[in-house]
Amino acid sequence: MHFVNIHTHRPTGRHxxxxxxxxxxxxxxxxxxEPDGTLSDDAQAVGExxxxxxxxxxxxxxxxxxxxxxxxxxxxxxPVILHCVRAFEPTMKILNDYHLRAVIFHGFIGSPQQxxxxxxxxxxxxxxxxxxxxxxxxxxMKMTPLQNLFLETxxxxxxxxxxxxxxxxxxxxxxxxxxxxxxENYKRIFQSDEQ
Length: 195
Prior knowledge:
Number of helices: 7
Distance between the termini: 26 Å
Largest sheet: 6 strands, parallel
Shape: globular
Radius of gyration: 16 Å
Oligomer: single chain
Strand order of the largest sheet: 1-2-3-4-5-6
Order of helices and strands: EHEHEHEHEHEHH
Strand content: 5-15%
Helix content: 25-40%
């Protein structure tokens, strides 16, 4: 059975680890003059991109680059791996302006209410190690339907197997059930020709 690690900075080659390319909001000031510079047709997704209002890059510049990335994702019909820190409301507002193949909130550490709003818009939620340190995010994980759920290691040293084991315990399902559902989600979003 496959483990899908939807977002990792430490690929192992042993699991399904989709490739992504895009402009991270931390670097929007360095790359805004060439919005497509880090995108390629070879990448499976655009990302991670988004808004991070905890960093020093001006919000207006982040939004400009984010919109350019979303437009490119829509043009290429690629999923978006979304970085969202202290910017949930502006992010949701901007997403309304684009017809995207799929949006995955990576490294989600928000509330159950935020997760529910994202899911209602058809987004997926991906949880990593940081989710297990936040009671509100654990509640969000519990209520996220399996068809909207992904798991990840991001930049942590934790293994994807451990993330799945801990998430299975939180959700009250087996690791095999999580593997099966995330694999189906991966196939639907990354391999289907349907929009």
